[in-house]
Amino acid sequence: MKTKKAEKSKAIEVKTNYYWYVAIGLFAITTAIFFWEHLFGNAYLWEDFAEYVYPVQTFAAREFAQGRIPLWNPFAFAGMPFLADLQVGFFYPLNRILTLFVGTDGTLPVKMLELSLIIHFLIAQISMFALMRYFKVSFWSAIVSAITYSFSSLLVCHAIHPMIVSHLSWFPLIFMFYHKANAQSSIKSAVISGLLLGMVMLSGHPQMTLYFYLFLGIFFIWNLIADILKKAITTKTFTKYIIASILPFIIAAGIFQIQYLPSSELAEQSRRQEMTFEASSEGSLELSQVISAVVPKFFGYTDATGESKVAFQLKKKNNKGEYEPFQYYYYWETAYYFGVVALMLGMLGIIGMMKTNRFVAFLAVFSIFALIFAFGSNGFLYYLFYKLPFFSKLRIPARMAFAIAFGFSVIAGFAIDKLRDFNLKQILAAVAFPLIVSLLAAVGILQSFFSFEENSVSTIQSYGATALFFVVSTLIIIYLASKKRLSVSIAGIILALLAFIDLYIAGADFNRSKNDYSKQYQLPEQTLNAFRSKYPDDIFRVNSRMYNPPFMAMKRNQGMISEIELLEGYNPLVLERNVPPLSREEIHKLFNVKYEIAIDTLRMSPYFAERADRLPRAWLVGAVKVIDGEKVADFMKSEKIDYSKIAVIEKQPEINLPNDIDTNFSGTAIIKHYSPNSIIIETSSEKPSLLCLSEIFYPSWIAKVDGKEVEIIRANYCFRSVVLPVGKHTVEFTAHSSKLISGTWISLATIVLSIALIIVYRKKE
Predict the structure, then answer these.
(1) CA–CA separation, 353 vs 348, rounded Å?
(2) How far is Cα of residue 184 from the mean position of the Cα atoms in its chain?
(3) d(CA 627, CA 454)
(4) Is 0.85 surpassed by the pTM of this model?
(5) Predicted confidence (pLDDT) at residue 599 exceeds the cutoff of 90
(6) What are phi and psi of 576, to 5 degrees?
(7) pLDDT digit string (tens) for 664-722?
(8) 389-418 pLDDT per residue, tens
(9) What b/e string do you get for 225-257 counting C-beta neighbours within 10 Å, with b at 16 or more?
């Protein structure tokens, strides 16, 4: 008897493994086809991936490869926190694997960086497939769900924002373990869900993290209420039920502390604090964009080639009541297309299963919630959430539409397995919206309701015809399967193929830039030799951008690639105090700028001019002006000050210094060592002095004078300084984040305790 059971169990295991091998093989093929051009070097990612991700991940990988934790980045904005920037995702494991591929020139190969992103589309499919198989959905139904979710616009159009893709790719797996934790009061599953969620949070996109917490939290409350009403929870099981449902949030938050604590310090010092409702609701879905659920390019589109057949032409009313086009990035920030296959099957599943399946009911209700939320300023719901903590610090409410793509993809898988249970009335009700919209767009009637450019109407009509083809094809398959003229497996295969082709047509071109952005960062050796500091003897900065007239001589984050200390950069987070309120001339002098952009008045062309009057990176002054922090900006604007001899500070120093320039004062400050996280300076003076640095003030730096820790005083609005007594001294500045240390211990303790819980409950459960 035992032998037969063992043989049966072995057969099931072999069959299950076979399904997984086939599924992973299929997903590898779909991913390769979708990103074929990238894998073979014919296309490249673009926008923020080229402008931000490539230089940031190159710098992170290079520093880590040299054995350094990059707390500070001296190559952008004259210096700013690096690891504390949450979007860097320094502690996300897949980012750190990139360190293995740093080239001899100190840069990351573009193909390895892009492959890291592309792999997440494979992960997304595997993750969704695992979720659907957990729900006992058939093989091909699970394949359809995996394809429609993973190649939806929410992922494809955010390939330029890999931190969003990282979140979305793992979410089905996170939810699978959370569902198991909630449904079975499983502590082991709760821990795994929390570990995965914590890992994803480290990839660096707080908005998606917040939306995940909201989704899982509402799911928990939904089930709690339903289970209480059904009396499925007893007094004996209540405690474990609650613990299993809440534990993932606690574990994820604990793991995230290694990043959260340093990032919270940066947030306090940055400009990006509370937003107005208007700023926060930027990126709201327009009501008319429900059409895009059927015809994704109905309003035109933007892509990497810059050669879209119909430019994105959705318009909005300005303050004067006039219609004006949205910004170019509005297309990808509000794109949420997940294919007519998932849309129609999802609608069918909601109509036919909502009353009998609690989970389908939840996904349907939350999808409606997500849509109203995504409307942002065009609805009422987002205004209510804007009043809550965290939501007011985020933009682009349309990103909540991820829940719609997720919900409809899941319900679509359920619906395929139930195709023979649906009647004609239910099918017609499910396909009515996509059929009407695609038909009206195909014949050109729908376009007449919008003020489109005349030369775009026929092209949009062709988009409508394409959508109509997929709607009708899907309808035929659904109808034949419901009448048992087509097996569910064959229907699943055809629907998977239709879904992939549809989504390929809709989004494959979006990321196919022909520009190898790594070449845009390449500079001649002569330029590199001229513009790189020669540490520690000749340290300086370069101004590569001017605004009147506008001109950029280098890429905005060129410094991180070429190791050039730039005055400029590109980052959503900028320190509140990073530039003193002075003229361009005075700013460049204070910032130790050796080369600056100037205009040749004869040829009216820009060129790099060398400055002779720049202040050194470190110098001594014998006098100070003590001004209240709230008044320092006005004081510096109104007073003419020789910053080489006197400094403006915001608190009285422990050693008294005169408040007028001492003409007899002299002293030297020589930099002996300079690296991103450490500066050592030897000083000498016959009078008490203030050591001034052309280095941005930030709380995580500490200073020691002759081995004894001293206070760093903010000087000249945004720079560092320390007070020195008479004589010779060795001053050491070190990037040292106590919040990082605290966060590291909390995160490590969380991981250790989580592993212990898994070991204990692995046997119990």
Answers:
(1) 8
(2) 33
(3) 62
(4) yes
(5) no
(6) -60, -45
(7) 999 999 999 999 999 999 999 999 999 999 999 999 999 999 999 999 999 999 999 99
(8) 889 889 999 999 999 999 999 999 999 999
(9) eebeeeeebeeeeeeebeebbbbbbebbbbbbb
Q: Average pLDDT for residues 717-729, to the nearest whole number? A: 97
34: Cα within 13 Å, side-chain hemisphere: 35
Residue 178 identity (one-letter amino acid): Y
Residue 99 in contact with residue 61, Cβ under 8 Å?
yes
Residues 78/734/266/196 CA torsion (nearest 10 deg): 120
At residue 548 the predicted structure's pLDDT band, cuts being 50, 70 and 90, is confident
Beta bridge partners of 685: 667, 727
DSSP 8-state secondary structure symbol assigned to residue 320: T
Task: Return d(Cα 647, Cα 538) in angstroms, integer.
Answer: 23
With contact defined as beta carbons under 8 Å apart, do 346 and 363 qualify? no
Instruction: Supply 682's token pair.
Output: 């030897």
DSSP 520-563: HT---HHHHHHHS-BTTTB--EE--EEETTEEESS-TTHHHHHT
Q: Look at residues 560, 476, 487 and name the one whose alpha carbon lies nearest to residue 518.
A: 560
| Euclidean distance between CA atoms 28 and 125, whole angstroms | 9
How many residues in total does the chain contain? 765
Q: What 8-state DSSP symbol labels residue 311?
A: B
Burial 450-486 (b: 16+ CB within 10 A, else e): eebeeebeebbbebbebbbbbbbbbbebbbbbbeeeb
CA 415 to CA 404: how far, in whole Å? 16
Helix pair angle (340-353, 402-417), 10° resolution: 70
The predicted structure's pLDDT at residue 600: 82
Q: Which structure tokens are listed for 744? A: 């590291």
Would you call the peptide bond into 434 cis, given omega within 30 degrees of 0 as the criterion?
Answer: no
Q: How far apart, in whole angstroms, are the C-alpha atoms of residue 24 and residue 111? A: 22
- Residue whose structure tokens are 């959503």: 572
Residue 295: both structure tokens together: 């015809």
